[in-house]
Amino acid sequence: MREAVVVEALRTPVGKRNGGLAGVHPADLSALVLNALVARTGIDPAVVDDVVWGCVSQVGDQSSNIGRYAVLAAGWPDSVPGTTVNRACGSSQQALDFAAQAVLSGQYEVVVAGGVEAMSRVPLGAAREGGMPYGPRVLARYDGFSFNQGISAEKIARKWGFDRTRLDEFAALSHERAAAAQDAGAFDAEIVPVPVDGAKVTADEGVRRGTSAATLAKLKPSFQEDGVIHAGNASQISDGAAALLVTTPEKARELGLTPLVRYRAGAVAGADPVLMLTGPIPATEKVLRKAGVGLDEVGVFEVNEAFAPIPLAWLAETGADPALVNPLGGAIALGHPLGASGAVLMTRMIHHMRAHGIRYGLQTMCEGGGTANATLVELAS
């Protein structure tokens, strides 16, 4: 039976809104990580069967198949195709799943999976400006709910009984862990510096050192006057890109490359679209069942911190060890460049697994509309 392996995983720093990466076109930001893959692995880009690229807001600078324009911006041969995937925040995680599935099926030998989002240039919600993508029938089915993720996060916090202090403590921990990871050089091997105006952006920009529950308590709720969700316990609006090279173990040997991890299983689950962001719970159960791996066998989890209640609800339902969840911080501290986030989290997790000899890693991502991806990878021997 064929196997799929990841032989390299790289990302840009995650830039804060209107920060160091704001002036970089998303095609050029994508090209940077594509060419970093080539430089790191020594492959000829002509061997790549496809580039599968996640992006959420596919308008403006990110319109008209940004995956293809990323390939062209990188200067790769015209013969290398590219396609763009949108599964909301899970877009580049889905890109990895599609890439692995293509390799496993025998249709492709070498695939690049990844994604980009330049939220400073293409603002959140720009893709549906003036429109109503869910339509009147969906509104009627769910009693006119606005499908606002912030309101959904409020509902989740109430359902699981998380008060403002608990959420802010979790958010502060995200910053604490991210700062410690930066100081320890945990991200150095995976980050591709971005040249900007004669200088280079070399580190994630969103980390706020010294953040505490007490400092976060001063922030006003963002979605409801008496709510518990605010800018400090939600993910940051960000810019970034990431890419992973996927192939078979046999092709890796032919190319002189060493696999980092083996793709074990991927799953997608749907959940209540009003609560919207609880999909990682059934997706996790589904991917573990498919892989035949127990939760207690997994040594690291990346559960995207879209809002603090999401990983907390996931923890409450799965019973996973909190110390193993987002050990390097998450999107609250490090940012959430939508279509790139799945690939960013996977890159971060793979390098953490390699550094610490962790056999299994599981990544899961909540998504607008009530879906979620979960992916399980195993350390390659």
UniProtKB/TrEMBL annotation:
Domain of life: Bacteria
Location of the active site: 89, 336, 366
Matches recorded under CDD domains: thiolase
InterPro entries membership: Thiolase (IPR002155), Thiolase-like (IPR016039), Thiolase_C (IPR020617), Thiolase_CS (IPR020613), Thiolase_N (IPR020616)
Residue ranges constituting the Thiolase C-terminal domain according to the UniProt record: 258-378
Domain Thiolase N-terminal: 5-248
GO molecular function per UniProt: acyltransferase activity, transferring groups other than amino-acyl groups
This protein's UniProt keywords: Acyltransferase, Transferase
Pfam family, one: Thiolase_C
Keyword Flavoprotein on entry: no
Keyword set includes Transport: no
Family statement drawn from the similarity comment of this UniProt entry: Belongs to the thiolase-like superfamily. Thiolase family.
Protein name: Thiolase family protein
The organism of origin for this protein: Streptomyces himalayensis subsp. aureolus
